[in-house]
């Protein structure tokens, strides 16, 4: 009997992700499906199973369903879904679920994002580690024992209901006509965009959608479905300018993140999008009688976000980086909205889960309800200058961090340790954060300043200490 099976190569802090046939296999997925039911006590309950357009997703979905039904769960197969479709289904049906996706990772990868009932996230600290251990036991034993009652399997398509639900949250029917280029990157937004923003299921909106790479293809023949990399936005930028479009939207592979390009082909920072959506959600909550709505932002979001939130009469709450932290604080605080620098956007009306499409709809509404171009509107939300994330590969991350601290920790400079180290100037003219990667030997620098000269000098000085 093999008693040394180790799934730690594919189980991460918040999800499962690995190379198909190597660190994630049909056998391991089947065992995970069984352990998922055991750990969450789902025998006799509904489990939702779907997947993205990667070639291995259907086979993995079937394997997970086999493991889950063997342990007594009733599986509902959702077929092709975006990750936020899983959250919708998990929320609306109050059922646990999984979607097979590796998000923005290359074609040879796949993985699992799991959810408790009500779209409550799972992490290594809230059940994922126990699922891994249970799956390892089943693999070591070579069998999955049948429950007293084997579960059933059925199918359901939630795309139309998902689209109707999003349409109910943001009314785009009265905005001025907009021309929008959408780059789906051959990912799941190629399915969800026509459903939500087009007239496939619902009434037509005053939007002209120009599609880029809507064909579902998990080999990503045009460019990786990772809009965080500027190179992957090149085609979208060109298409926006050449078509005279009002804006461009880029989604990652599983469509839970959305990036925005203005009419000049320039990106709108995720912090600016966070501010734009926060203002709309604050005002909606206040109109409904909420005295002091709460907005969540992580610690490397622009300081323009908490400043705007306070100016609107709401309360900003700062968190660590990472979606499980954001979702947990969203629930604790009853927050109406949360945003991250990585273009994940979280909504109370979406079970505190992240959805790129709903964020995109808010941007469309904000732009379409006034007459200025997005480049002008966006300037309201980007008063400062940011470095973006600068990663340095190091043999000794701790030593580099200590050098920076020794150099910058002085009278008037505040240092906090909420997530890595954040240094803030006494006069507020700059701040920067240093965080070690959880998975790679990288030190991540994010800096922001009042003007480009301060930012350039600050960034150079920090990197000089890091890279000695």
From TrEMBL:
Residues 389-464 form the Alpha-D-phosphohexomutase C-terminal domain. Pfam families: PGM_PMM_I, PGM_PMM_II, PGM_PMM_III, PGM_PMM_IV. It comes from Arthrobacter subterraneus. Its cofactor is Mg(2+). GO terms for molecular function: intramolecular phosphotransferase activity; metal ion binding. NCBIfam families: PRK09542.1 (NF007088). Belongs to the phosphohexose mutase family. This is Phosphomannomutase. Residues 10-126, 161-265, 284-382 form the Alpha-D-phosphohexomutase alpha/beta/alpha domain. GO terms for biological process: carbohydrate metabolic process.
